[in-house]
Amino acid sequence: MHSLRLPLARLLQPKILFVLLLLITVAPAYVMAGDRDDRDRDRDRDHSPDYPPYGSNVPTAHFDHKVRPQLAPPAVTLLTDGTGRVAQSSWNMELVGYDTLDGRSTYQPLVVRQGDRYIAYMAHHAGTGINRLNGVVEANGTSLVDVTNPSHPVYLSHIPGFAGSLDAAGNQMAHVCSGDVLPSSSRAEAARKRGHYYLLRSNGNSSGLATPTETQQIFDVTDTSHPVLLTTIVSLLSNTHKNWWECDTGIAYLVANDPTQHWVHSGSAQHLKIYNLHDPANPEYIRDFGMVGQQPGSATSGACTPPACEGPATVTPPSGIHGPISAGTEKNRIYMAYGVGGSGVVQILDRRAVLNNCNSPAACAVSPSQADMLAPQKGWFTLPGLTLQGGHSSFPIFGEENGRTRNVLVVTSEEGGNECTAGSAPHAVWLYDVTDEANPRQISVDANDPALTRLDVPDGFDGTFHVVSNGLAGAAYSGVYPASLTPQDNVSNPNGFCNQGGRFGVHAVTELFYPAYYGKLVIASWFAGGVRVFDIRNPDAARAIGYFVPAPNDTGCGPTGGPSAGPGCTFANTGRDNHAVHAIQTNNPELDDRGYIYLADRAGTGMHILKLTGAARRAVEGDDDDHGHHDHH
Amino acid sequence: MTMITAITIIIDAVWELFRRGLGFRDSAGALPVAQSKEVGLMKYACILIALCFAPYSFAGTPDAPKSAAFTTNDVTLEMIAKIKVGDATGSQIKELLGTPWRTNNYGDCNVVDYQETWEYLGHDANGRFKISIEFDEAGIARIVAKTPARGPVVVLAAAPKPSTQHQH
């Protein structure tokens, strides 16, 4: 070695060696820098899907009429710690990733493709928790999580809500649009928005204060680690809820109420306040809108008789809206679910008529006439059980069957009480054929189900319902929970989901028009029942095809926040007879454009990222080889 | 230790191996003066190159979380026993127990049984426990429950449910 070393040392003088070293090291550095520029450009480039809510290119569902076997979901398993709670259980679904979200109660997940990353915007209920990034106790707001690798979510930032009364707090709803997709009225505006992403969120919910404090806000979330408040769209609101924002037009349907404008509602006091947010920094008010009978000057009591309310309402004044879903410019329809968990009505609107018939600054924008309210209405219907079920979500599926147009609406109610409150109905999902908008009709009816639908989940672990009849007939018929379920509150031997402390029943469905699942699956959150998947390829014979019930988090909320050892994230909920249980409460599900399913948990359990497996996967791939086969994990 | 100091130490170590491996030294182990100047130049060049690379080596983790300490009040069961369920307000409980470790308010547009919950942490002979205090819509504590390190929740105190609840 010594003999080789000396000639090498003579040949490779330090100067020459330095130049060589420089070439070897600096050249790749420049190449890497070039790659990085490309990556930065790629990151800046918008990759938003072109279907709602990002665009107006609605996929076409291809329904069929194949007779597929009704599958029997396997029973869930219970934890072995003597608490009687449901352990992680799944059927044709698999857990991919998880984050505690610092134990914050979460309402809605929204997952956005932001450049070359996927960002989950997790919208929280009111509350407080420790931000793992700074160790500070912050009022619940919006958590931003990088889920580009769904197996390893990276918590990026938390946009706190405002402090003060918890009644008046929370940021439950989120929508995000790219500045490259939002239209612009000038080149300067387009240049200002280029490469930027904007978060629309509700701020506060239902304080009930004499001088209300709820608002709707816009944040610039281009730098996901350092979001910046851009503007408050509207303030002094008494209620907010599930907004919708069309990214390709900028039109935002904000759910809210300004008590000084004297709109009237039963239940949730909220209707639509419509803005054009094409330039998020400069909101443009368009009009207020809701169910006929909610406009200022309408009756606040008495019978609801046409034409005063034109039939839709089951209560006077009509129930407030939960949230709209717009199908965008191409389909020109907005679907409005009213009532939340009771007195439900679903309304179908002509989008252009809503947006063009009565615009600010005309007086009718704020205080429309009955004719103004009826002009955009194309159809409406009530739900089985009438007052017992509410309109929470109404997701349209535009499709065809045997070459003929067939449009279906997925509708959910919302369970509102803990442990199946006596006299309440099992809240479920329904399918309606809305091809003839003036005459919607329910399909996938199950006469033996207490909610008269195939898209339901029995409360009993044995697959049966513990309900009685409400004693009414016709449209008012419903099964209802009795005063006592047996064995009542026996934690060591629970008989079903109604013994898990919190709510059990449907809440929401996914709202992304994701083509791969569109018209094939309905994915619904069921509180203590986790997430439920139904196969609707034959919409006349929907069937259960998958579920995932997350395990409660008993030890994974670190004392400094975040997913480290410590006290459990899952909150206790208390039901009948002060029966307190730390059980999961799957609140909302949502998809990303890769097909992953994200769950938010209102009991603070965190965010679960799932994928489809087995028969559920085969259903979206068009494979019918499932003949009752169960993939049970 | 700063990033530059760390990089300098690494460069020194690598340089030392590099220098010894190529035999840049005389029989006494010392470098000629002229050569050592060039070697010194190379050393600084290496440091410079390393500094150029430093941003790339950290580019993969731009959003790495920072941690910070947080301590919560450790409550005792004696303190918890002083809560008057059915009467105590949030401010009275805060006066008694301090700031809660975590809170929650389920209030959305639907009826909820007890929509607001506060949590405190404590320790006893069996380990860590969690105290949950649930409030009604009037802000009155209705249920106090203890979650032990293992096993089911134990309701320590409860007051009858208010007779009416209003909808949002």
Explain the overall architecture.
Chain A has 7 helices and 36 strands. Chain A has 633 residues and is mainly β. Chain A has a single domain (54-620), classed as 7 Propeller (Methylamine Dehydrogenase, Chain H). Chain A has a 5-stranded mixed sheet, with no helix packed on it. In chain A, strands 14, 15, 16, 17 and 18 form a 5-stranded antiparallel sheet that branches. A 4-stranded antiparallel sheet of chain A has the order 2-31-30-29, covered by helices on one side. The longest helix of chain A is centred in the N-terminal third of the chain and has 31 residues, at 14-44. The N and C termini of chain A lie far apart (61 Å). Chain B is an alpha+beta fold and 168 residues long. Chain B is globular and about 40 Å long.
Shape of chain B: globular
Query: Which outline of chain A best applies?
Result: globular
Number of strands of chain B: 6
How many structural domains in the coordinates of chain B? Answer: 2
**Which residues of chain B form runs of ≥5 with pLDDT under 50?**
1-11, 17-36, 46-70, 164-168
Order of helices and strands of chain B: HHEHHEEEEE
